[in-house]
Amino acid sequence: MKRVTLEEVARVAGVSRATASRVVNGASSVDESLRHAVQKAISSTGYLPNIAARSLVTRRADAIGLLLPDERRMDGDPHLASVVSGVTRVVRPLGIHLVLMMTGPGTREQAMSDLRCGRLDGVILVHTDPADPVPGQLIAAGLPVVLAGRPLRPMPITYVDVNQTAGAALAGRRLKSLQCNRIATITGPQDTPAGQDRLAGFLAEVPDAVVVHGDFTRQSGVAAMERLIGCCPDVDGVFIASDLMANGAIPVLHRSGRKVPDDVAIVGFDDSSAALTSEPELTTVRQPISDMAAEMARQLLRQIGEPRTPVTSVVFEPSLVVRDSG
Amino acid sequence: MKRVTLEEVARVAGVSRATASRVVNGASSVDESLRHAVQKAISSTGYLPNIAARSLVTRRADAIGLLLPDERRMDGDPHLASVVSGVTRVVRPLGIHLVLMMTGPGTREQAMSDLRCGRLDGVILVHTDPADPVPGQLIAAGLPVVLAGRPLRPMPITYVDVNQTAGAALAGRRLKSLQCNRIATITGPQDTPAGQDRLAGFLAEVPDAVVVHGDFTRQSGVAAMERLIGCCPDVDGVFIASDLMANGAIPVLHRSGRKVPDDVAIVGFDDSSAALTSEPELTTVRQPISDMAAEMARQLLRQIGEPRTPVTSVVFEPSLVVRDSG
DNA sequence: GATGGGCGTGAGAGCGCTCTCCCAATCCTG
DNA sequence: CAGGATTGGGAGAGCGCTCTCACGCCCATC
């Protein structure tokens, strides 16, 4: 149960600490016989490098942060598990830790400190409030950071996003191909890039669509659909900018005596778990969340590896998942 | 942009490094004037302690791990965000990092290493496979660990759980009070404590209930309900051991021409987001996930603070959330 | 006025690792 | 065979922090 150090390994292997270190770190140019001896010593002693000591000299924490919005905004967000899993996939083989930070009082400041004092090598920012000063501060300080989703105001920052506009267009084409005559959309919040782009992309495809506003929440989906069938009773096709809103909106249609998809076709966006828990299951625009998360991790690691590298943005193409609702 | 060390702070404040360290760590017995000088030096230099250096000597990582099942098992699990948020709430004020680890090839071994080499102070294990050797290894090694949920086989390990039996009884009483005559239950997997206890607790309250087995997944809820109405068409009240299964089961009832709750009352378990995305919204047994997670964190910290402390188990009481389904 | 006990402070020894030298040994080339 | 080039290994200096220990200093005690 006693701690075994490199020193100990070196002693057992009959080499210097430096050579033992070289073997541990896979450095080139160590004689094969010595390397063997060291490896034997490592496994016989059960040696594990002390990360703190290593970190102290390499100035690398081998840990990155994932900054999330608070529980309420995350709740119902189906993506968390996928994001974590995507990031984990690229990060774990490298022995890098994923530190989760949910936004709360002082979190973002803490993340800044962690970054500056070398406790974190970089951060991935999810669902960032446009008014949040943190991204700006981070890039100003030259600290590695990647955004999930295009920032509202253009800024020199690396981000990964899905082509929201193209996704909405996909939905529009689907409704048109279903021969819908009276097409509407329930939008996301218009102060977010995703909300804006999904509306713009849809209108580009269906210019005369009726527009009703929502804010991505289930609740707002209910309200928006009530308004929609009030003002436009003959609607027969709706693109709803999030599955969660669609999930709230469909029962409203049922209650009004309309059948989905027979009377009204519905296309959602996200392909979240809400798409499967809806009745009928949602036809929706899928974003490859897990792959996007993996890409964010890769971008972040690149920045950490070579600072002052030019910012990039990676945009993934969405796809249409056809199920029962439209 | 240059790193400022304690040494630097001490120099600016005109004291020794030791005294500066005392101030940083809030140690007693530092003269008020010196403390002031040091604090001024800290803020003027923008000093942030280097965690790696501290960790090296204190042998504390100030980080704990959250070991999760993989994405597929987590998918649809509505609890992740709540768990993270509960743990974060107690852990962050202490400056302790929450490291997320999703189960995958080698994860559990990695967690063991991290623990042993001092990179992690302790771990919380969620959804542990009964056959998993890791919990046993951890307690054998005397490493701090807390389980989410009672282990299948009794073992000397600290865990936090909800009183599953009592929760199921709550559901049973609810269905009886609704004057249901023909009561059934769709169970969870019978090789898990939760699955077993929910069935046992329900049968204790409704001994003559029809029992159909499921495995907590939505899919299995669909299948189980199909079997149920096949073998027992006059059923008028069902306790479904997870909201996710209930979410799958309700559309089956609708398709068979039965109305919920008028023809068949449904009570779920979990109060997960699936309870709200169901139509009608589910009456369900709520477990205080976030509070339980917070308690897990507290238990873990206690173990870290004083090793070899006796194991404890904390059991929370569930409550019934009455909505529209039963 | 000498003695004992606190208490606050500074010096310095590590914690376990990496990495830069520097030296020795081997190799190639003319 | 001499000379330089190349390579592998060891010594040792830190990385930034905590913490023990010993040293003053001041006050209370006899």
From TrEMBL, chains A, B:
SUPFAM superfamilies: lambda repressor-like DNA-binding domains, Periplasmic binding protein-like I. GO terms for molecular function: DNA-binding transcription factor activity; transcription cis-regulatory region binding. The keyword Transcription applies. The keyword Glycoprotein does not apply. Residues 4-58 form the HTH lacI-type domain. Keywords: DNA-binding, Transcription, Transcription regulation. InterPro entries: HTH_LacI, LacI/GalR-like_sensor, Lambda_DNA-bd_dom_sf, Peripla_BP_I. Gene3D superfamilies: 3.40.50.2300, lambda repressor-like DNA-binding domains. Pfam families: LacI, Peripla_BP_3. This is DNA-binding transcriptional regulator, LacI/PurR family. It comes from Lentzea waywayandensis.
